[in-house]
Amino acid sequence: MNENKKLSERERNNLMKRLHSHLFWVGEQIPCVIELKGNDVHLHEVVWEIVNKSEHDEYDLKSIDMFISLLYEKEKECEKCLGEKNLTCEEAKKIFNETAGLMRAIMNLKEITQVTGKKSSEKHICKNVTSQEWDKLKLKICPK
Predict the structure, then answer these.
(1) Count of CB atoms within 10 A of residue 61's CB?
(2) Model's pTM, two decimal places?
């Protein structure tokens, strides 16, 4: 794809098809920062803090579910933009990568909130994880 030329319908269809392929998001990078409801969210840091937190209480799980819903809305917004807007190839690639990273963040977080057969002892947990970014964000998205 030439970065400055307009995205063709064929290229757009290929990008949309890739987004919907099975396990496409595996290996994708979670965006460092995204805008969510008018606020900059350090998404990579927040997801890392949540995933590496040793225990999650009911408030955490409720907040994570709400956060997943917000990320899902953002992912759908990006996908709609990719599917409908008149974009350059460079713009399309940027939106595609953000969408893919959002999908990965959603899947990482769903693993925490869904009951699985995986024993907690099998999960790698980093010691002494502070959850400053997550603690600030969950108060915004799910006030006590």
Answers:
(1) 12
(2) 0.77
136-144: long-range contacts (C-beta < 8 A, 24 or more apart)?
A: 137/41, 137/46, 137/67, 138/59, 138/60, 138/63, 138/67, 140/39, 141/63, 141/66, 141/67, 141/70, 142/59, 142/62, 142/63, 142/66, 142/67, 144/59
The residues spanned by each domain of the chain are 9-114+128-141
For 44-72, what is each residue's pLDDT tens digit?
Answer: 999 999 998 888 889 999 999 999 999 99
Query: Residue 15 phi/psi, 5° resolution?
Result: -65, -45
Contacts of 30 (CB under 8 A, 6+ apart): 43, 44, 47, 101, 102, 104, 105, 108
